[in-house]
Write a structure and sequence with these properties.
alpha/beta, seven-stranded mixed sheet, two-stranded antiparallel ribbon, 11 helices, 41% helix
């Protein structure tokens, strides 16, 4: 029969994504961790982990066993907590990580990651930030870590640990007839001749898009501005305009075509990163949080995102014969 220690070992491997990291948390040797996983897999009758790059990940069967394990852990915590409360015993303090993230990262990654019934070995406090202020807030000590957008001109700073979570390319969205009329033989002239919906003046994404089109010699003419990506696409439809939006939030509706380049001009790219002070390297919470957020981004990457336009609707059937005159 499986032991609680084997279940605990499996959950630690899932959390840390590696045998050695789990061994450090459990104060075991890597060979002891591997042996416990092997024994638990033999008890279940199927393998629980498989190689993934330099680490390991749980197999589909391992994920199922882990879900049961997390339910056991949650029940254990509830039972122990109630008994401590009844007896007046002090509750042990857990490490608290103050995490900031910009709105779309909070909604699309952070909240789904912590909502998967996976108990973290630390508590989280969440704060909404702008896409570019994460490093400043970490440096000031306001946050322990931040999910932010890495500027394309950012330099390495030994005071910080910056780990990539996702490269989020933009796509060009516009009504199909608008792109059809644009001059593809001269991309700069073709794109400059379009009306545009842009982010608010001075915002992080406005600077990213403005500098990107400027590098390609394109002067755009804005007819609307908003920092809401959904509203930006609504405005593009209503105003018959073009807009750059992150592929992760592209709204694939029939009224819009999405392309990742136009006449050889690629769409801009932003990189989403997790930033903390360099001293976080010595703390286990950073690697746990990074792996959890990275896996959530990878899991959600194909859900509703991408640059492939919808196939055109089928042609309307030919009209039937006209009714005979009476």
């Amino acid at each position: 029969m499986a032991s609680l220690q084997q279940i605990k070992t499996l959950l630690s491997v899932q959390t840390h994504g590696g045998i050695h990291a789990a061994a450090r948390e459990l104060h075991l040797s890597p060979s002891a961790v591997s042996q416990q996983l092997k024994c638990l897999g033999s008890e279940c009758g199927f393998p629980l982990v498989e190689q993934e790059g330099r680490g390991v990940r749980l197999t589909e069967g391992g994920e199922g066993v882990a879900r049961i394990g997390w339910q056991m852990a949650e029940l254990w915590e509830q039972t122990i907590g109630k008994e401590r409360e009844r007896s007046g015993s002090p509750k042990p303090k857990r490490h608290v990580v103050r995490l900031g993230a910009f709105p779309s990262a909070l909604q699309g990654c952070v909240l789904p990651a912590i909502g998967r019934r996976q108990r973290l070995p630390f508590d989280l406090e969440l704060f909404e930030t702008s896409p570019s202020e994460g490093r400043d807030l970490v440096q000031a000590g306001t946050l322990d870590a931040a999910v932010s957008v890495q500027g394309f001109d950012a330099r390495e700073d030994p005071r910080f640990r910056v780990s990539s979570l996702r490269r989020d390319p933009f796509v060009l969205a516009a009504p199909p007839s608008l792109l059809a009329m644009a001059d593809r033989s001269s991309p700069a002239r073709g794109l400059a001749g379009l009306p545009w919906v842009l982010p608010q003046v001075g915002s992080d994404c406005d600077r990213l898009i403005t500098m990107h089109v400027a590098r390609h010699g394109i002067a755009v003419r804005p007819v609307g501005r908003t920092d809401d990506w959904g509203l930006a696409q609504e405005m593009a439809v209503a105003l018959r305009a073009a807009v750059y939006v992150p592929s992760s939030v592209a709204d694939h509706r029939p009224e819009l075509t999405h392309v990742d380049h136009f006449g050889g001009v690629p769409a801009p790219v932003r990189e989403v990163v997790l930033t903390a002070k360099a001293t976080a390297t010595a703390n286990g919470w950073f690697s746990v949080l990074h792996r959890l957020l990275r896996r959530t981004y990878d899991r959600n990457a194909g859900a509703g995102a991408g640059a492939s336009p919808r196939p055109p609707p089928p042609p309307a059937p030919p009209p039937g014969p006209a009714p005979a005159a009476g």
